[in-house]
């Protein structure tokens, strides 16, 4: 027994060391996402200049956790002169701050009949998404691929210049895992539409207390808790950081048609301007 116990401890220790090494690599690796030209001005100046452009935006998925927080921060920041929520049902807002938010109720199964909802917006934010556990395989593909792609097509036809997509860490159209494959496929197909600017956000596990029950995700968050403390950018990201990264990225100038923002970049973008606030 002592020999078996010792062997088990050795195997566990070896696996732990390997995991820590991989985590450390992910924590310190990654390209510099801020070339000097992007940071020539401070964030507040960029935000002020962006407001003067009187841009309009729409949000898909505003009833979900990310979309809800995104709408809140957009309303508070007043970055856009017109804000439209596109969804399958009317949302109830008690706060007076939301009084000017436009709402377009659509049937995602017949989106072509609601093309007018997507017209006249400069920027689009897509936070649509479900899970296989909640909607089944076919339902997941329909929401995370079909609805997203059709929305992007209508947005492009309606004049949208900058499309922002919440995707997932590990998204890969060649993946053997359905979730990651579908995310990768829709990224590639939206890119083919040729937006003036297309920003893809690939967050790792989102740290958020959801209203919707997702036991698997809850367990993963608890499991990653200690790793998130020591390696904050490797496996998780606070949902509020993701949202702030999306808004900060929107005001930053870019000479690229496609921004691919992995988890570490999301952390960096989301924390821009924090030093000046302190």
Automatic annotation (TrEMBL):
Disulfide bond in keyword set: yes
PANTHER family referenced in this protein's UniProt entry, alphabetically: OXIDOREDUCTASE HTATIP2 (PTHR14097:SF7)
Protein name, as recorded: Protein HTATIP2
GO cellular component: cytoplasm
Signal peptide: 1-25
One Pfam assignment: NAD_binding_10
Complexes and interactors: Monomer. Forms homodimers during oxidative stress. Interacts (via N-terminus) with elongation factor EEF1A1 (via middle-region); the interaction is direct and competes with EEF1A1 binding to guanyl-nucleotide exchange factor EEF1B2, thereby inhibiting GDP for GTP exchange and reactivation of EEF1A1. Interacts with nuclear transport receptors XPO4, IPO5/RANBP5, IPO7, IPO9 and KPNB1 as well as GCN1L1/GCN1 and LRPPRC probably through their HEAT repeats. Binds NCOA5/CIA.
Keywords (A to Z) from UniProt: Acetylation, Disulfide bond, NADP, Signal
GO molecular function: catalytic activity
Keyword presence, Ubl conjugation: no
Biological processes, Gene Ontology terms: import into nucleus
Alphabetical list of CDD domains matching this protein: CC3_like_SDR_a
Residue stretches making up the NAD(P)-binding domain: 61-207
């Amino acid at each position: 027994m002592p020999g078996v116990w010792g062997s088990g401890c050795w195997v566990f220790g070896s696996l732990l060391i390997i995991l820590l090494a991989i985590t450390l690599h992910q924590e310190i690796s990654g390209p510099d996402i801020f070339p000097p030209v992007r940071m020539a001005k401070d964030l507040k100046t960029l935000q002020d200049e962006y407001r003067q452009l009187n841009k309009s935006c729409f949000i898909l998925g505003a009833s979900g956790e990310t979309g809800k927080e995104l709408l809140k921060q957009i309303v508070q920041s007043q970055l856009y002169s017109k804000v439209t929520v596109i969804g399958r049902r009317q949302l109830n807002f008690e706060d007076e701050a939301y009084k000017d938010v436009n709402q377009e109720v659509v049937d995602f199964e017949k989106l072509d009949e609601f093309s007018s909802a997507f017209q006249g917006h400069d920027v689009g934010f897509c936070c649509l998404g479900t899970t296989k556990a909640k909607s089944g395989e076919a339902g997941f593909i329909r929401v995370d691929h079909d609805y997203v792609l059709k929305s992007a097509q209508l947005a492009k036809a309606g004049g949208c210049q900058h499309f922002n997509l919440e995707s997932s860490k590990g998204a890969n159209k060649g993946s053997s895992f359905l979730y990651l494959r579908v995310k990768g496929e829709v990224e590639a197909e939206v890119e083919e539409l040729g937006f003036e600017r297309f920003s893809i956000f690939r967050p790792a596990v989102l740290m958020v207390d959801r209203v919707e029950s997702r036991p698997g995700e809850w367990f993963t968050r608890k499991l990653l808790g200690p790793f998130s403390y020591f390696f904050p950018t490797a496996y998780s990201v606070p949902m509020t950081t993701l949202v702030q990264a999306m808004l900060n990225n929107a005001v930053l100038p870019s000479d690229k048609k496609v921004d691919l923002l992995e988890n570490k970049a999301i952390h960096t973008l989301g924390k821009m301007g924090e030093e000046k606030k302190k």
